[in-house]
Q: What sequence folds into this?
């Protein structure tokens, strides 16, 4: 099963993707997303706000940095460990 992340706290997108669609332009677009998810064997989309998933939010922000491709695997693991430790304290 895959986990799908959207670039913000998009509860409305998650609700739309998990619902039945009609024939409006917006519904057709959502239907395309549903088809892509189905073809990728995604069971459902779930909403998790940023504050509840700080590791994913930090990694998402990190991926947009210009120097992200130069970070090593160990740097990424260190970033995750630091974020989790800060979240627990």
A:
């Amino acid at each position: 099963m895959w986990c799908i992340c959207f670039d913000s706290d998009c509860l409305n997108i998650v609700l739309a993707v998990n619902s039945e669609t009609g024939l409006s332009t917006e519904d057709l677009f959502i239907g395309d997303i549903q088809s892509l998810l189905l073809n990728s064997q995604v069971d459902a989309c779930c909403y998790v706000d940023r504050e509840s998933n700080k590791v994913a939010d930090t990694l998402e922000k990190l991926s947009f940095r210009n120097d992200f491709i130069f970070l090593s695997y160990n740097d990424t693991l260190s970033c995750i460990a630091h974020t989790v430790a800060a979240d627990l304290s």
In short: The chain has a mean pLDDT of 75. The chain has two domains: 8-47, 50-88. Residues 22 and 71 are 45 Å apart (CA to CA). Residues 8-47 form one domain.
